[in-house]
Amino acid sequence: MLKNLFPTLSRFRFAVQVLMLFVTVYGSVIVGHYAADKITGALPALSCSYDQMNGGYCVLIPTQHQVHHRIGQAMVQAQQLTVQMVLPLLLTFLTFFAFFFVIGKAFCGWVCPLGTLQELIGKIGRRFNIGLRRFEKGDLGEVKRVRPVKWLLLLGLVFLLPLLTGLGVTPHSLGNPFCDICPSRVATTLLTGNTEELALRVGDDWKFGLGAVANTLIGFMLVGGLALRLPFCRICPLLAFNSVFQRLSPLRLTKPSRDNCGACHICTEACPMDIPEISTHSGRKAYNEDCTLCGRCAEYCPQDGVIKLKWGPFALFSSSREYYKAKVKGELPDGTVKPLKFVKNAAKPAAGAADA
After folding, report:
1. What is the pLDDT of residue 85?
2. How far is CA 211 from CA 88, 201, 217, 316, in A?
3. Which of 68, 45, 49, 67 lies closest to 58 in space, CA to CA?
């Protein structure tokens, strides 16, 4: 029955993504505020529970709050590191680790509502035959320039500025800087019909500036996502945060040896994060900090058993030539699908005019 409903891994992942998008945005409407508060403590998602009473949670929110209100203020008062200060932050991380152990970085590729929205936007771009912008295959130059951004955002906006605010060095408005610029805050609240997060706070220069950045990011995601796959995921500090602990989870993608690899680079072409190491390396080096465990590289590997999605010793999915041949009939590795009929028809006169 499941095979009939979800003939491919991508379709099964898409069904999970849509379900989690519904849960993280509208969950509390169904389960009520009390139960939603419990879900909030167990589901690390880029969906802002502090301003919308939904079931979503983000480990970066309490991290900023604890650094701001606990660590920073305690240091100002010259207090020592005590249980009163460390325990709340420790509990935040333990809750995160309990969830992270089960699914690891697959949260980014399977659960995150912002990732789901970006993939949906990308699918629209492919359907309307909008040209795909991607990093050069096998070229680390562009990738290396982008990768540090998420670490700078994590260190600067999640840890440093909240700490400085707690110390009284920076204004109170900078106590939650990442939350104030996070496009997920805008996107998920818009899905509830609330446009308040688009409004700029004119009474506070810092809040006004952060709000302007947030609107710029959401605009970039909506427009740029039509041609660039997962544009915000590449600089998301939560991806960097997850990367620090990626080896703690038994869920992983494996490419143990390149002996059977045809060096075709199809796996890199299929990767929505344009990771060139997948096709040029094996072992841990093949899957670096940018991997979201979406599994597309395994789906589009044309060799039997070269790439596997595993949880501990159990193989959940393994690359297969037969699976690959069936998969490319509907969607190419880079996400290209058959354009909508009226889009193709609209393109024909333009081509004829060009020939004339």
Report:
1. 64
2. 29, 7, 10, 42
3. 45
Angstrom distance (rounded) from CA 267 to CA 282: 12
Side chain identity, residue 68 = H
The 10s digit of each residue's pLDDT in 272-292 is 998 988 888 888 788 888 999
Q: Which residue has the higher pLDDT, 219 or 131?
A: 219
In the chain, what are the domain boundaries? 2-241
- DSSP per residue over 6-34, as a string? --SHHHHHHHHHHHHHHHHHHHHHHHHHH
26 CB-side CA count, 13 A: 9
235 pLDDT exceeds 90? yes
List pLDDT tens digits, range 136-191: 544 456 777 889 999 999 999 999 999 999 889 999 999 999 999 999 989 998 98
Rounded-to-integer distance, Cα 202 and Cα 219, Å: 20
Percent of the chain past pLDDT 70, that is, above it, reads 79
Contact 240, 154 (CB under 8 A): yes
Distances (CA, A) of 144 to 149, 180, 289, 294: 10, 27, 11, 21
Distances (CA, A) of 193 to 3, 26, 183: 36, 11, 16
Q: Which residues sit opposite 44 in a β-bridge?
A: 57
Residues 6+ apart with CB under 8 A from 283: 255, 256
